[in-house]
Amino acid sequence: MLAYPYTLTPDDNGTYLVTFPDIPEAAAVGEDKETAAIEALDGLICALEGYFSDRRTIPTPSENGEQTVVLPALETAKVLLLNEMLAQGVKKAEMARRLDVHMPQIDRLLDLRHNTKIDFIEKAAAQLGKRLNISFT
């Protein structure tokens, strides 16, 4: 899974600002360090949604820092799928054609907030000549 490092910066109002060096658009705020760490995931996902919307390659995380936010498995798979589609120049319409589905299904496939079935992501990866690999560590 993708683990994005973040920094916590105390703000002058007593809160903590979360920023991500790899995803400069991502930010979150928390009343204390623990709350800021919890809010960090939502801030990261919100920023990543912008990358999906703009069809921009999502940077992979740099070396894990002291503090990281780990994207859940489904969101990680979707990020990797988007990046592969962009690398191969495969547009959403082409993916819909390859999977023999309608465009709304592809929109949901590339929606970080949609609970896509993992087998559909596997099929999409196969259409790109890739294989989804899952392991316990």
UniProtKB/TrEMBL annotation:
Matching InterPro entries: HicB-like, TTHA1013/TTHA0281-like
List each copy of the HicB-like antitoxin of toxin-antitoxin system domain by range. 4-125
> Looking at the record's lineage, which domain of life comes first?
Bacteria
Record-given protein name: Type II toxin-antitoxin system HicB family antitoxin
The opening ranks of the lineage are: Bacteria, Pseudomonadati, Pseudomonadota, Betaproteobacteria, Neisseriales
